[in-house]
Design brief:
- By secondary structure, the protein is an alpha/beta fold.
- Helix 14 runs parallel beside helix 19.
- It folds into three domains: 245 residues, Aminohydrolase, N-terminal nucleophile (Ntn) domain (Glutamine Phosphoribosylpyrophosphate, subunit 1, domain 1, 4-Layer Sandwich); 184 residues, Glucose-6-phosphate isomerase like protein, domain 1 (Rossmann fold, 3-Layer(aba) Sandwich); 149 residues, Rossmann fold.
- The chain starts with a strand and ends in an 18-residue tail after the last helix.
- The chain is built from 19 helices and 27 strands.
- The strands form five sheets. It has an eight-stranded antiparallel beta sheet with strand order 3-2-4-1-10-9-11-15, covered by helices on one side. A seven-stranded antiparallel beta sheet has the order 5-6-7-8-12-13-14.
- Bound molecules: 5-amino-5-deoxy-1-O-phosphono-D-mannitol.
- The site of 5-amino-5-deoxy-1-O-phosphono-D-mannitol (M6R) has 17 residues, from helix 9 and helix 16.
């Protein structure tokens, strides 16, 4: 969480840093701040609230300067307030520092520094770092970059840090451990730093992703140099960004979430483009090819993920077990890592993560790696920590997802998992050639069918208007539609703040049925397939208790239409692919309800896009 941006070069830093912070605001949005070096002045402006509040506060004051650092915060230690906002400064006002992550031993360090006479203004863990850097720099008579390197050996936890000092106006120092940081190399001898590439891409596509425990020293004369914590110089690995600027704009939509929902025909297509050919009957996930035999013979595949990515993992479990007959377990990364799981070199652990930075997912992978398991990743963000840690994997190619509520990333994850299941099944011989070809052709047709589902938007908006004031909602599904129900409930609660739960439809009578009354909307996935008749019975149970049923059905359905209060039709497809279509109406529904309730759709309260704290 928290977004970091910095600039040093010949241009004015303030507009670049503020624009970058706005692009990163999805990472955290409770307070923001900048520090700017102007001559012998270090000007710091910080405010609780959105970046625009801080921007307004700073404009009209001295915002000049060719070096600047900026931060948008998601509070961990200390409430969102002006004083807790970053940057934090040394007591003599010479050094300013921003931080994303958590310093676990901040309390001990704070007490030691207080004993040395340091006075703390904020309740943050970050302030400890800036005072420690100042203390070491004075005690050891070293410049602030060297002091930061020495300080880091005393710090436990996760960090992405950028610091400037008015004693070194041509320098900027950065360090990372478990929190991402990218350096952009501008064409005019200037440098950009950010938590991800989105603030950088409009200026340069040449970047270096910092590795764990790496320190970047940027000097306007000497350029970029990298060191490890032991002060050994490292060779930077330059990469070209593939991201396009338009992908970061709303493109005429009112919200990023709506844009991303509507991008799904393209993002699903981009995800399987070049990876399958129905006519020639092949599927090929390049980044996994070397590990497929290992996956086929593994004890089990363990999928680790959080939130929406965990739901995608559950769909993957249905697909891989059914088609490829390989044992799959899906685990919450946060639980898995703390329960001493039994793992060895015969296990394959697959992390699913849109951001590729989720702290718990990353830690689960590190644990699996330490136990000798093969580790693979399904990530959206290219160059992210998970994609760099894993032995192999597949990118989802959904393009930047800015809305905090995950939409197109989910369908892209499910698409990769479908390709994976098909590829494994084909190699293992657990799928007939005809079935294989049918599924490939059906998958190729999915983007067109998603377009058709998006055309039901007006109907979904009407349904949203009817249920926008509900205080509770239930989502029901069976088989691979059960994770779709979970995902539907998560979408509703995270952006509209209506309490919602997803349940396997048959489980309803073991408890949740007690909640049903005439005010309770129940969203049901009742598409054609093996469990259709069972779901129809579940709908009858709801109706017998006067619950309101909104059913997602297969085009042309008559039986459910007669029972339900509303039906939303999706085109017919193979049962294995239903999650890719059935999830779309729930995304639109949550979106419209949230808008009608006046909620901040793209930046819901208390959330952040990239959860880099445990
Ligand atoms: O970046 P990741 O996929 O690892 O993120 C996992 C969850 O934090 C994320 O899916 C979260 O649940 C979203 N807000 C859901 O919309």
């Amino acid at each position: 969480m928290c977004g970091i941006v910095a600039y040093i070069g010949k241009k004015e830093a303030f507009p670049i840093v503020v624009k970058g912070l706005k692009r990163l605001e999805y990472r955290g949005y409770d307070s923001a701040g900048v520090a700017l070096l102007h001559g012998d002045q270090l000007n710091v402006y910080k405010k609780a609230g959105k970046v625009s509040v801080m921007e307004e506060f700073a404009l009209g004051q001295d915002v000049a300067g060719h070096a600047g650092i900026g931060h948008t915060r998601w509070a961990t230690h200390g409430e969102p307030s002006d004083v807790n906002a970053h940057p934090h400064t040394s007591m003599d006002g010479k050094i300013a520092l921003i931080h994303n992550g958590i310093i676990e031993n901040y309390d001990v360090l704070k007490r030691e520094l207080q004993n040395q006479g340091y006075i703390f203004k904020s309740e943050t863990d970050t302030e400890v770092i800036v005072h420690l850097v100042d203390y070491i720099s004075k005690k050891e008579h070293v410049w602030f970059g060297e002091a930061l390197r020495l300080a880091l050996s005393q710090v436990h936890g996760a960090y992405a840090i950028v610091a400037i000092s008015k004693e070194y106006p041509n320098r900027l120092v950065a360090a990372r451990k478990s929190s991402p940081l990218v350096v952009g190399i501008g064409a005019e001898g200037d440098f950009y730093l950010a938590s991800d590439a989105t603030p950088i891409v409009e200026y340069t596509k040449k970047v270096v992703y910092l590795d764990d425990e790496e320190i970047a020293v940027i000097d306007l004369e000497e350029g970029l140099k990298l060191y490890n914590i032991a002060d050994q110089e490292r060779t930077p690995f330059f990469q070209q960004l593939e991201m396009e600027l338009e992908a970061l704009e709303k493109g005429g939509y009112e919200h990023f979430m709506l844009k991303e929902i509507h991008e799904q025909p393209r993002s699903i297509h981009d995800c399987f483009r070049g990876r399958l050919n129905a006519e020639e009957a092949w599927v090929n996930l390049g980044g996994l090819r070397d590990y497929e035999q290992k996956m086929i013979t593994a004890n089990r595949l363990i999928i680790v993920a959080c939130g929406t990515s965990w739901h995608a993992g559950l769909v993957g479990e249905y697909l891989i077990e059914d088609l490829a007959r390989i044992n799959v377990e899906v685990e919450y990364a946060s639980e898995f890592r703390y329960r001493n799981p039994i793992l060895n070199e015969n296990d394959v652990v697959i992390a699913i993560s849109q951001s590729g930075e989720t702290a718990d997912t990353l830690a689960a992978l590190e644990l699996a790696k330490s136990k000798g398991a093969t580790i693979l990743g399904i990530c959206n963000v290219v160059g992210s920590s998970i994609s760099r840690l894993t032995d192999g994997g597949s990118y989802t190619h959904a393009g930047p997802e800015i809305g905090v509520a995950s939409t197109k990333a989910f369908t892209a994850q499910v698409t990769v998992l479908t390709l994976m299941a098909l590829s494994l099944a084909h190699k293992k011989g657990t799928i007939s050639e005809t079935h294989f070809r049918t599924l490939l052709a059906e998958l190729e047709a999915i983007p067109e069918k998603v377009k058709q589902v998006l055309e039901t938007d007006a109907l979904i908006e009407q349904i949203a208007a009817e249920y926008k004031d509900a205080s509770n909602a239930l989502y029901l599904g069976r088989g691979s539609s059960f994770p779709v129900a979970l995902e539907g409930a998560l979408k509703l609660k995270e952006i509209s703040y209506i309490h919602a739960e997803g349940y396997p439809a048959a489980e309803m009578k073991h408890g949740p049925i007690a909640l049903i009354d005439e005010n309770m909307p129940i969203f049901v996935i009742a598409t054609q397939g093996n469990s259709y008749e069972k779901v129809v019975s579940n709908i009858q149970e709801v109706k017998a208790r006067k619950g309101k049923v909104i059913a997602v059905v297969t085009e042309g359905d008559i039986q459910v239409r007669e029972m339900a209060d509303h039906v939303i039709e999706i085109p017919e497809t193979n049962e294995f692919l239903v999650p890719l279509l059935a999830t779309i109406p729930f995304q639109l529904l949550s979106y419209h309800i949230a808008v009608m309730r006046g909620c901040n759709v793209d930046q819901p309260r208390n959330l952040a896009k990239s959860v880099t704290v445990e």
